[in-house]
Amino acid sequence: MASVVTTYTPEQIAGLSTLTIQNFTTEDWAAFTPDQLVALTTAQMSAINPLAISAIKAANIFALETRDLRLISTAAVAKLTTEQLAGLLNEQLAAFTTAQVASLTSNQIRNLSTNSLNALTTAQFAAFRTDQAQALSSDQISKLSTDDLNAMGSAQFGALSSAQIAGLQTDQIAKLESADLRAISTSAVAKLNTDQVQALNSEQVKVLTSDQLKALSSDQLNTFNTAELAALSSNQVAALTAAQFAGLSVNTDQIGAIDTADITAISTAV
Q1: What gap in Å lies between CA 208 and CA 118, rounded to an integer?
Q2: What are the pLDDT digits (tens) for 175-206?
């Protein structure tokens, strides 16, 4: 039996009460055409049953107006299928409120295309929960703009796995903010390749924690140029192990870049 929705014109859809909208079944929502979706009013959109919204055909969801999308409850947003999210236009995704973005499930985040992720605003990325950040694949992370990446806070960076951090491009690493850089786990720091470590600048190097420095291998540490080594504080130099310092001793320029007073702070060095 065909849904009653198929008998309504767009004008009639716009005149339906919110109670009628609330009582529509999944079969009814699946029957909506693009023209009927466009006709929905803001009051009607606010009344959509969260369990029913996933029934809107993914091929038709592009017809929802951005102002109406912003009125969908967070519970309804969490019910959107990955196919529906893929069917949303960039301007629709960018129109989501930060609360709506924060309501997306890890599975929804994990299945967003590069194009969809790049459509999100920096304010939306700042609203990411830590588990949403953890849901991003290393490939997704590698394709984020530096602005979007930096919009996420230190809590999100601290939650990222070694594999996710390993996916960062060198230009992304070069733009990481101090608080975000310091939040990266030591296990993730230890997995950085030499190109990634070399992408760090002096300002970034001097904010690394002692534990992060201690996690670096000799090969990683040897990518530091003289300006970066000179930027290290006494406490940072003191965190270096004998093995790390011995690795630097093959390069007299590197050793010369470290302040003499700082070198004396290495209690375990040769």
Answers
A1: 29
A2: 999 999 999 999 999 999 999 999 999 999 99
